[in-house]
UniProtKB/TrEMBL annotation:
GO CC annotation terms, alphabetical: mitochondrion
GO biological process: methylation; regulation of mitochondrial ATP synthesis coupled proton transport
Record keyword Methyltransferase present: yes
Keywords: Methyltransferase, S-adenosyl-L-methionine, Transferase
Record organism: Cardinalis cardinalis (Northern cardinal)
Name this polypeptide is given: F173A methyltransferase
Domain of life: Eukaryota
InterPro entries referenced in this protein's UniProt entry, alphabetically: FAM173A/B, SAM-dependent_MTases_sf
Record GO terms (molecular function): protein-lysine N-methyltransferase activity
Gene: Fam173a
Family, similarity comment: Belongs to the ANT/ATPSC lysine N-methyltransferase family.
């Protein structure tokens, strides 16, 4: 379990800036209240979906999507990120604890296509070199292009 910490407006803006101009399926692993998925959809990243295990956060995310007029356009699924297949994902957002990053790195490298980009917030992937980074302190985010990470 990873404790819920909502992303700040600056973290959301920085994350989406590192995904600007990209296309393809966008997922947020541990999507919380859905704010990153909502913003991704608003900025044209489609399909956009979130995986979240906490039922209260799922309800909140679905409510926020409905209130924004995106009911049926964005999906929030109660699924364990370790059990979902990410092979069709081109943009992956990860705001998870440092302890999760090493095993998640293995999963992402095994499943993601070469053209995928992973954007990590709060904590970088310790063994990966970022393609780019944006922000400072708690608002810093790191982008990793899977093709580059595999090299």
């Amino acid at each position: 379990q990873v404790p819920y910490q909502p992303s700040s407006p600056r973290q959301v803006a920085n994350t989406l800036a590192l995904l600007r101009g990209r296309a393809g399926k966008t997922v947020d692993l541990g999507s919380g209240d859905g704010r990153l998925v909502l913003e991704a959809y608003k900025q044209g990243l489609r399909p956009a979906l979130g995986y979240e295990l906490n039922p209260w956060l799922l309800c909140l995310a679905r409510f926020r999507a409905w209130r924004a007029g995106y009911h049926g356009k964005i999906s929030f699924l109660k699924k364990d990120l370790w059990k979902v297949n990410l092979s069709d994902c081109h943009n992956v957002i990860v705001f998870l604890a440092p302890s999760v990053k090493p095993p998640l790195a293995t999963k992402l490298l095994a499943e993601l296509p070469d053209d995928a980009r992973v954007v990590a917030g709060r904590y970088p992937f310790p063994s990966w070199s970022p393609s780019s980074t944006l922000g400072q302190g708690l608002d810093q985010v790191w982008a990793y292009d899977i093709k580059e990470v595999r090299r």
